[in-house]
Design brief:
2 copies of one chain form a homodimer. With about 425 residues, chain A is of the alpha/beta class. Chain A has 14 helices and 16 strands. Chain A starts with a helix and ends with a strand.
Chain lengths: ~425, ~425
């Protein structure tokens, strides 16, 4: 049976990953530095490829916000190269041992950090992800298979070619980084089933795609970026602080996964608080979709549909629900939350303690915006996304989360 | 739509897990101590249930080794209770934080260890696993759904009832521990798809079942216990040490996953070493299945079939292959190994370094038997099995590997 193009790509990536795993961080970092300089010296060819994608996007009537996401400029490429340099500066995630023991029988055991092997990433039409993802994988000693969106294909292919050339120039196998040339749904299906070649698959993009991949992949998957986040304003909250936090969580960047989608307000303070919050939210023309109690206080709000509690709006839209107290708030979050980021605004020590104990999410906030869930903001360095699952990795997926471990045991003839 | 029995069980376990997650280790440990004493005081009822399983097993012509695995005695129940007490004595896996930082903006971040939630375990007809698995889950704050083999159903049901009563007596929800009453393949399928209720599924037992579950489950899975382990005797090995190691790795307990299945011998020493190893292996009437080179040295050995390199014999059978050196040995292991435990016997520093660097397995040994891959032997405490996958957990799956983390962020009104 002959191999498909993607199987062959998987096999080559696996082989490259074995060579890569033997290298120390000096060589991995040297390759990353070469990638950063090649991005700068080859900017012209990258911009040329990007112009083709932009042209097609315009012809196909792509929305302005998506066109902007697709656009590369000299400055943006410089920023991407700068991002690579920042990844070089991170500590080597393979450079430490998690556990060391000398056992009573003399066996010396250490749990050495090792790369996963081959990481595959399915992502939307953002050319910068092509480089960010590859750099994070190389830093952690992994080969990467990139499967980007078709609208950005020419840009991603140009960026990949620049990276592969830099790998060759520094003596690393070029198959440490490769791009899937088939941008149909079929290649997603193939990647999902590439057992033996793909050690971890990270799907990004729409919630439907992510769910489909998580439920049907045969290879291990980490789910990232599904964010139905809540801000709960408890009865003892400082109203100004609470209004600033919900405004920031909703409106500072509605298109990202750590933006808030639902405001929960304690019934005791709803009549006083909601109009104050609305004033701020109105400055961004935020559409409010309220429960019946909310509508009594804010008659202009649109009645919330049941589906609004589940929605990630990615827009200036906020669902609003009046709750009887902490218990109803935590139950609502348990029912509708996606396990990403949840916040309480309160002055009650007990409420803060109960909320942080009981809410089951990657990040739980007291008196701060959900927008801080980010590897950089947490002090963990660059990341590939926010994992909302509880196994393997939860929260920011940085270079450490792209590693596994291996117990190395040194003996002198021990038998059991 | 009404819920199936297993869905309802999942829902109840999820609810119980929420209550359990709020408890400190004092209460979890008290419940475990109550379970240990209840096992001792209720021994009679457990033995009665076990007698029914034993009777049926005999009627159905169950093999002696399986009957022995099924049998409970007063002493064995005492040993199970003792195992629970040892799990109580382990450090609380939820009692520490993986990461603490105060950020420049004043946010205080800590990565708190939290339970996974609900762990489901599919296991063979070993009544002791019913208690071991439940105790490890409770210690780590998880509710557990047990799905044991049908041959041990009465025993497992009696043990589960004893544990549930102990939970009630110490004020914990009894649904922290429950047994699936449907022992057909159908319940495996239902558990695999219990998204929203099951946070981690651990299949144990036959390789076919494990592969089926890993490839088809919608819930997260950890693969344990698939062990095609190798011992490679390099040309500089001490022959006596090497013979003792392969004899121990193969014959000390052939039915377990860390037993060796294939011996790889360097061509330079094969003619001298193989007859010496055979002498020891003969004391257990070990059947050797050799490559053509092996057969030239050991004409009595049976010719190895291609499938022998892939087999887990679980028996006194050993595949033997002569290799040209370290490179062929590591390639053979990369091709056929299951990523469990691999050993080299050598006096060459360089060979030891290359083998430990290049072999991709949960445990890699120099000059020691593969049989040491075990939580207790590694000094990590009791475990549910040996994970052979690279994501989430690799190697012994102890209480720590049954946890996740949650970033708790304390602010004073920070916005981004």
């Amino acid at each position: 049976m002959s191999m498909s193009a993607i199987e062959l790509q998987g096999k080559n990536a696996k082989q490259a990953s074995r060579a890569l795993a033997k290298l120390g961080s000096q060589k991995r970092d040297a390759a990353l530095r070469a990638i950063a300089s090649a991005l700068l010296s080859d900017t012209a060819s990258i911009l040329e490829a990007n112009a083709i994608d932009m042209q097609r996007g315009k012809e196909n009537g792509m929305r302005d916000s998506l066109l902007d996401r697709l656009l590369l400029t000299k400055e943006r490429i410089a920023a991407i190269a700068q991002g690579v340099s920042e990844i070089v500066a991170l500590p080597d995630p393979l450079g430490r041992s998690d556990y060391e023991a000398t056992r009573p029988n003399g066996l010396r055991i250490s749990a050495r950090r090792v790369p996963l092997g081959v990481v595959a990433i399915i992502y939307e039409s953002r050319p910068n992800v092509t480089v960010d993802a590859a750099a994070l994988c190389l830093k952690s000693g992994n080969a990467v298979i990139l499967r980007g969106g078709k609208e950005a294909y020419n840009s991603s292919a140009a960026l990949t070619e620049v990276m592969r050339r830099a790998l060759r120039d520094t003596g690393l196998p070029e198959d440490c980084v490769s791009l899937v040339s088939d941008t149909t749904r079929e290649s997603v299906g193939e990647l999902m089933n590439l057992t033996g070649f793909v050690d971890l698959l990270i799907p990004r993009g729409g919630a439907g795609l992510i769910k489909h991949v998580c439920e049907n992949a045969k290879v291990p998957v980490v789910q990232t970026g599904v964010g139905n986040c809540h801000v709960y304003v408890e009865s003892t909250a400082d109203f100004d602080m609470a209004a600033e936090i919900i405004f920031n969580a909703k409106c500072s960047r509605p298109s990202v996964c750590n933006a808030a989608e639902t405001l929960l307000v304690d019934a005791k303070i709803a009549a006083e608080f909601l109009p104050r919050a609305k004033k701020l939210l109105d400055t961004k023309h935020t559409e409010l979709r309220g429960c019946p109690e909310t509508l009594k206080i804010l008659p202009d709000a649109r009645p919330a549909e049941p589906s609004d509690w589940e929605a990630e709006f990615y827009d200036y839209i906020l669902a609003v629900k009046v709750v009887s107290g902490l218990e109803e708030a935590t139950e609502h979050i348990a029912k509708y939350g996606s396990g990403h980021s949840e916040a309480i605004v309160t002055n009650s020590y007990d409420a803060a303690r109960r909320f942080t104990d009981e809410i089951d999410a990657a990040a739980v906030y007291v008196n701060a915006s959900t927008r801080f869930t980010d590897g950089g903001e947490f002090g963990l360095g660059a990341e590939l996304g926010i994992s909302t699952q509880k196994t393997h990795a939860r929260g920011p997926m940085g270079v450490e989360q792209l590693t596994s471990l291996k117990y190395v045991v040194y003996g002198s003839g021990q038998i059991r």
